[in-house]
Amino acid sequence: EAVSELIRNALKALPETGGKIGLRARLQDTDLLIEVADNGAGAENLSLDEIDIQQRHDYRTGLKLTKAIVEQHGGKMKINSEPGEGTFVQMALPLRMEA
Prior knowledge:
four-stranded antiparallel sheet, globular, alpha+beta, Heat Shock Protein 90
């Protein structure tokens, strides 16, 4: 669900021509890192902590919900976005090892 939401947001941000989305998954120590990047419009001062889900109905609401899902699973989410440069999102989800 979280990855789907990130891809939907990236698609919405892409320019009509020349848009690109990158998706990468890799292991780092005991975490699964999932990264989504786009070359869309980007955003200035993107802070998920200040978004009121009940008040906003834009892409940031989806990002806030995605962050909540990741945190419910014990993970963390980082976002780097610059106007005109696109957005990079990294989710780190802990892997549970069965003994």
